[in-house]
Design goal:
The complex is a heterodimer of chains A (about 300) and B (about 425).
Chain A: H1 19-41, H2 43-66, H3 77-87, H4 95-110, H5 123-134, H6 136-139, H7 160-166, H8 174-179, H9 191-203, H10 210-225, H11 230-235, H12 239-246, H13 257-277, H14 284-301
Helix pairs in contact in A: 1-2, 1-3, 1-9, 2-3, 2-4, 3-4, 3-5, 4-5, 5-14, 9-12, 10-12, 10-13, 13-14
Chain B: E1 23-25, E2 31-35, E3 45-46, E4 53-54, E5 59-62, E6 71-72, E7 77-86, E8 92-100, H1 118-128, H2 140-143, E9 154-159, H3 168-191, E10 195-201, H4 205-214, E11 221-226, H5 235-243, E12 258-262, H6 263-275, E13 281-287, E14 295-300, H7 305-311, E15 319-324, E16 331-333, E17 346-351, H8 352-355, H9 368-372, H10 379-387, H11 391-396, H12 407-411, H13 418-431
Parallel strand pairs in B: 1-14, 9-10, 9-12, 10-11, 13-17
Antiparallel strand pairs in B: 2-8, 3-5, 4-7, 5-6, 7-8, 13-14, 15-16, 15-17
Classes of the chains: A mainly alpha (about 300), B alpha/beta (about 425).
């Protein structure tokens, strides 16, 4: 008997939280927004969601099989990437483009850099930017909410941000903004559903409130100061989706509280600069991507001071 | 003190299953193996040889080094071996094996010490063989005679007992509260300290109530109820949470005016001053999912842990892991013939399910380790620097401050062996200096 005793380094008890349970909770937190997207944009939204999730998981599985690496699909991180990417796409996007985006996210951005935990930029965001630049027209053909009735591509629905930038059309009401009854990508329109999911993640201590709070607050204050309607700026576009679900990606955001604050403010500033002064109506994904890239530097500059440490 | 920003830590399940188990006295085993290395510092040299007859309390090992503590026989009987044994940490040390006669005859040298001054007090503490019983095993007489004694004003009694399962300190308070307070008062008196603070985690309300009741009229003794958050009983954490003082890197508690003693240490000291019986027994919790009847035991030092487990009804199921110490910092052993040491406070045995080691997956940079570390260290960054062999970064990341409490590895969702990495990183630092 005694020659079978296991000897391992301490500690001998571990918390029940695992990578898989964290990712599962993120998917759960995205559920309200997924449901909302299907309700608002109809069955097409569901097809985009399924395409992205299946392509992401399949891409990860096949890549790891080909490279003879251990299969990591069970950690659910590929599912999260798939859902978040789908949330960033317009419901009218051809499905093959959604699949291309998924493969870019998993193979190019995640696996080629070493798999989970090693990517320098958020896979879903990078894939969205790649799609936006490659297929600009379909990626910016926004569909009005159809609630599953009218043919989905019957009319073009400009996003509130585009309306604000170009003027001409009328802006949706505030209630419509909160419920997501306006043009936009799948998951970004229903602010309430995103807020519920975000608050769930904060309550479960899966994400820290620092990044979303500083990101959203920065956009609110800056747009107000610059004479814009700050409410429409925080509810329109992908700010809630980006702030709660993409900027908070562990791998590509700073670890310390101070670093998170800098990251959130940086994202907010870049977002506003792009929205107001650049060619694109929306800047959330570019802002997060740029801040992803400088995250290692933020990390190095915001190391914690050790308790009792000499420096 | 409520204004202090409390240090990080983790919420671990308490499993204080044995808190109501009164201490039972373990029958004298057939033989004991008394290690000559039961303290931090130079090991002792045996002062007895094979076939010598020894009695309880007789000195069997001494050292002339400053940081050391004499070792006494815990039994009466015949020395049958003076040789080297392998310790649970993998190192070899000298040990004296005694075959007991079960008579427990007490040595003539065991008489109450005459203590009237600080010098005599320190001399007595040294002769008692007392080391830090909370786990560190630092010779107490050295701790009680710091160079800057005049600047020390507070005695902090560590009764936090933050490790899961272990209740031996709790039983010490419940059964020997008089000795706990008397021991603390003796230290307070001879070291001329203004204040005594007894820190207890708030998952032990009966102990807090008892100590508060017994110290009601004494303004110099404070009973501090501390949140049950691991590692509340870590020395620097306890000092900070009870006095607000921060022990700087490379300094000792005495440098900030505090001396910390474990509750079992002060209780022993009180008994020693009354009887002169040196440190020969230890209160040990035996628990875990593989133990048939968990108990608290008073055992002669040097008793093989197999005897403790047998007395607790043996294993009720095949054990997967046996620990000396608690689940957060204890050492997993591969054999059951290791002897109980002065600073052991628990023997835990877990069934195979509880012993299973979870699969290690890649770090996802979630930062849970950073938010768990009481000392604000960054274990994930340390791991990265260690893997890269980056000694400069390890130095900047202050891995040398790590006390190996286990919070980071406990909190890690990827189940990375962060404590082991920190140990190896510290080793790397000392080797490349």
């Amino acid at each position: 008997m005694s020659n079978k005793l296991i000897v391992t380094p301490s500690p001998h008890v571990k918390d029940s939280v695992t990578t898989q349970s964290i990712m599962g909770n993120v998917v759960l937190a995205l559920a309200p927004a997924m449901v909302a997207s299907v309700l608002i944009f109809g069955v097409r939204a569901l097809l985009i969601l399924i395409t992205c999730v299946v392509s992401c998981v399949a891409a990860e599985y096949l890549f790891e099989m080909v490279c003879k690496k251990p299969n990591t699909t069970k950690d659910l991180s590929a599912v999260v990437t798939g859902v978040i990417l789908a949330m960033n796409l317009p419901s009218s996007l051809p499905l093959w483009m959604a699949a291309v985006g998924s493969i870019v996210a998993i193979v190019v951005v995640k696996q080629l850099f070493g798999g989970i935990g090693q990517n320098f930029a958020n896979p879903a965001i990078t894939a969205r930017v790649v799609l936006l630049i490659s297929f600009t027209q379909p990626m910016t053909k926004w569909v009005s909410p159809n609630f599953g009735t009218a043919a989905f591509d019957a009319m073009g629905g400009a996003t509130p941000l585009a309306v604000m930038k170009n003027a001409g059309e009328t802006l949706p009401s505030l209630t419509e903004m909160l419920l997501g009854f306006h043009g936009g990508s799948l998951g970004e329109t229903c602010s309430i559903a995103l807020l519920i999911g975000g608050l769930y993640l904060i309550a479960k201590k899966i994400i820290s409130p620092i990044i979303p709070a500083s990101f959203i607050a920065t956009v609110f204050v800056l747009t107000a100061v610059l004479g814009q309607n700050p409410i429409y700026h925080i509810l329109g576009g992908g700010l809630f989706l980006g702030a709660f679900f993409m900027a908070t990606d562990y791998v590509t955001s700073p670890v310390t509280d101070k670093g998170k604050l800098i990251f959130g403010i940086g994202c907010g500033v870049i977002t506003v600069l792009i929205r107001l002064f650049a060619n694109y109506p929306e800047g959330v994904s570019f802002a997060i991507l740029l801040m992803n890239i400088i995250t290692p530097h933020i990390d190095n500059l915001t190391r914690n001071k050790a308790f009792g440490g000499a420096y | 003190m409520s204004k202090l920003k409390s240090l990080h830590g983790v919420k671990v399940k308490h499993f204080k299953n044995t808190e109501d188990c009164s201490t039972e006295i373990l029958p004298i085993p057939d033989r004991v193996v008394i290690s000559m290395s039961q303290h931090i510092g130079k090991p002792c040299d045996p002062t007895v040889k094979i076939t010598d007859l020894v009695k309880v309390g007789q000195v069997i090992g001494t050292s002339d080094a400053f940081i050391s503590a004499p070792i006494h026989s815990s039994v009466s009987g015949k020395v049958v071996a003076v040789d080297e044994i392998l310790m649970s940490n993998g190192q070899k040390t000298k040990a004296v094996t005694i075959e007991t006669d079960k008579l427990q005859e007490v040595d003539e040298s065991v008489v109450p010490p005459s203590v009237n001054s600080f010098e005599e007090f320190i001399q007595a503490v040294k002769a008692s063989g007392l080391v830090g019983l909370g786990g560190a095993g630092f010779p107490t007489y050295v701790k009680l005679s710091p160079k800057n004694l005049s600047e020390v004003d507070t005695l902090c009694i560590n009764a936090a007992e933050c490790e899961p399962y272990i209740t031996s300190d709790y039983r010490t308070i419940m059964e020997d509260a008089e000795d706990v307070l008397n021991g603390a008062r003796q230290v307070q008196k001879y070291l001329d300290l203004k204040k005594v603070i007894i820190g207890v985690e708030d998952n032990k309300p009966k102990a807090i109530a008892l100590l508060k009741e017994m110290t009601a009229g004494d303004a110099s003794i404070e009973v501090a109820s501390l949140p049950a958050k691991y590692p509340q009983g870590a020395e620097k954490v306890l000092i900070y949470h009870t006095t607000g003082r921060v022990v700087p890197e490379g300094k000792l508690p005495a440098d900030v005016g505090v001396i910390v003693m474990n509750v079992a240490s002060v209780a022993f000291l009180s008994k020693y001053l009354k009887t002169g019986m040196p440190l020969t027994t230890k209160r040990v919790t035996v628990d875990g999912s593989a133990i048939a009847e968990p108990k608290n035991l008073l055992v002669p030092i040097g008793t093989p842990i197999q005897n403790l487990i047998d007395f607790c009804g043996g294993f009720k199921t095949e054990p997967g892991k046996v620990l000396m110490g608690g689940p957060m910092m204890g050492i997993a052993v591969n054999r059951l013939d290791y002897p109980v040491l002065k600073n052991n406070n628990a023997i835990l045995a877990f069934d195979e399910k509880d012993s299973r080691e979870p699969e290690e997956t890649p770090c996802i940079r979630c930062g849970r380790c950073v938010n768990a570390c009481p000392f604000n260290l960054m274990p994930a960054s340390i791991e990265k620097a260690f893997k890269a062999g980056n000694v400069d970064a390890l130095r900047e990341l202050k891995v040398n401050l790590c006390m190996e409490c286990g919070c980071c590895a406990f909190a890690c969702p990827a189940k990375r062996r962060l404590v082991m990495t920190n140990r190896l990183a510290k080793k790397m630092l000392t080797q490349k200096k």
